[in-house]
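Predict the 3D structure for this chain.
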Amino acid sequence: MAEPAERSGQRRVRPAPLVFEPAEATADPEHFFDLESIEDPRELLTRATELTMAFRAATDRAVEFQAIAAAQLADPRRFDRLTAADVAERAEWTEDYARKMIEFGQDLIRTGGRDPEE
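Done. Predicted structure below.
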């Protein structure tokens, strides 16, 4: 994963807005998937847990797509191939992490992991 912004000394980048939450709701910083309106703690725990699991699954999937894209960009068969340092700069990773992600992406592609262009 990318280094936390606090450790790297860089300004923290806001995450992309979630496409399934209405724009007017995201304008309210206290609004988060309507969790603030749930009064029953059992229901709140259930819904918050569902969201946590969904975000974890989405994160895992997004990391796989990052790795595949990094591997594709670094593919030596490309005339416009990027080096691990170039990939690292583009993704705001360390060069060592970029190399690991490129390898992970190559493994995903080689073993039939989903290719985003399929």
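Residues 1-12 have pLDDT under 50 and may be disordered.
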